[in-house]
Amino acid sequence: MVSRVSNVLPIRVVISGGVVAMAAVLPLVGLVEHVVPAGVVLCLLAVAFGFTVNPTTAELGNAIDRRGLTCYAAAYAVFNVSYASGMMAADALASLTAGRLSFLHLLLCASAALVICVPFLLQKDAARQCAR
Hints:
- By secondary structure, the chain is an all-alpha fold.
- It has one domain (about 1-130).
- About 85% of the residues lie in helices and about 0% in strands.
- The chain has 6 helices and no strands.
- It has helices at about 1-10, 10-30, 35-65, 70-95, 105-120, 125-130.
- Helix 2 packs antiparallel against helix 5.
- The model has no long low-confidence stretch (mean pLDDT about 90).
C-alpha cells in the first residue's frame, strides 16, 4: 500500500501524510480504555508509521543515487544511529516530564511537535539551501 501511494504522490507528501496521520492517531492511544480498541488504534499508528519510515528509507537510497555515490551502508548507518538516538531521547524526555504531565498530555505534545514539523518536510529545497 505504501509503495503504491509513493508511486503516485511525491515522497515528501507521502511522508508528511504519515506524520499527520501519526499526529492524529497518537492522542487516541491515550484515550482508549479497553484492549481491542487499543489494538485497533495501535494498528492505525503502525500504518501511519509505515507511511513515514518506508518512503524515508527509499528516498535515502534515491538521494545517494542522484549524487552518483555508492555509500549506501554509511548512509543507512547514519539513518539507524539517528533513529536510535531519537528513540532514546524521546524516552528520556518522556521520563523527565512524566511526573508533570499525564500520558495523554505527553501524546498531545508529541502530536503537536509532529504537526509543527510538517511544513519543514514539505520544503523542496531545504537541503540545498543548507548546503550553500
